[in-house]
Design brief:
Helices cover 48% and strands 18% of the residues. It is of the alpha/beta class. It has one domain (5-219): 3-Layer(aba) Sandwich (Rossmann fold), CATH 3.40.50.300. The strands form two sheets. It has a five-stranded parallel sheet with strand order 2-5-1-6-7, with helices on both faces. Strands 3-4 form a two-stranded antiparallel sheet. Bound molecules: cytidine-5'-diphosphate (2 copies). Residues 7-214 form the Cytidylate kinase domain.
């Protein structure tokens, strides 16, 4: 039996990645890392600094000025940028509208690559039984060696309704289109991933199903 596993969860916007990861993290004592929040927080910092979403010197300088740390509260890990812990501002409509543009730039992805990989060591050091990391390219690029790779899927209309129920305007389809069609680490079903369709399942049912896969991953 393994004493530490990595669970990679990918999927489109509002597919249920965060709520599923959070539930798994408390059930199995995993450290939960939401890499979408990394892209969102980086986007907000670059917008604040007036750095446009294009490769170039301004971007290189802007990124070089961002010092990254990790804070954990219970099972939740959070990125800390120059001492700032991201808050609700990273879920704003302005960030929703801009994040996929910044996330498509290879320099931005490179900037976050080592930091994302380092979360596994941090999870071990801090005594967790594993890491659950969610995003768009976790099972394909960041942790292709993950013990369990999941791809969460839900009907786009269902996902739009879920996001709307949170009271937010978010052009989910447009973001998915950009995230799936970009050259650098596009959203795709990673090799060997298990597809989980939650269109007709509530959160509890998804978590029940996925928990069996996590238990099995400790045994394999
Ligand atoms: O919460 P939601 O699913 O709407 O999005 P998110 O996970 O917070 O991610 C926000 C955006 O960050 C995505 O639309 C992608 O453009 C980008 N992202 C990425 O490119 N790669 C990741 N591993 C995670 C997020
Ligand atoms: O992290 P991601 O953007 O993929 O999705 P999320 O924030 O976990 O979920 C988006 C919304 O869908 C939340 O309001 C969840 O409560 C809801 N949800 C649902 O209704 N049924 C599911 N099976 C999963 C999530």
């Amino acid at each position: 039996k393994k004493d530490f596993i990595i669970v990679a969860i990918d999927g489109g916007a509002a597919a249920g990645k965060s709520s599923t990861s959070r539930a798994l993290s408390s059930r199995f004592n995993l450290m939960h890392v939401d890499t979408g929040s990394f892209y969102r927080a980086t986007t907000l910092k670059l917008l604040e600094a007036g750095v446009p979403a294009q490769a170039g010197e301004a971007l290189v300088t802007g990124l070089a000025g961002l010092q990254l740390d990790t804070k954990t509260e219970g099972n939740q890990a959070s990125i800390v940028i120059n001492g700032w812990t991201p808050d609700a501002a990273i879920r704003s409509e302005q960030v929703n509208a801009n994040v996929s543009h910044y996330a498509a730039i290879p320099e931005v992805r490179k900037f976050l690559f080592d930091y994302q990989r380092s979360q596994a060591e941090i999870a071990k050091e801090r005594g967790f039984a594993g890491l659950v990391m969610e995003g768009r390219d976790i099972g394909s690029i960041i942790f292709p060696e993950a013990d369990l790779r999941l791809y969460l899927y839900a009907d786009p209309a269902k996902r739009a309704a879920r996001r709307a129920a949170e009271g937010l305007t978010d052009s989910i389809e447009q973001r998915d289109k950009m995230d799936s069609s970009r050259k650098s680490a596009p959203l795709q079903v990673p090799e060997g991933a298990t597809l989980v369709d939650s269109s007709e399942l509530n959160l509890e049912q998804v978590v029940e199903h996925v928990s069996e896969l996590v238990s099995a991953a400790y045994e394999n």
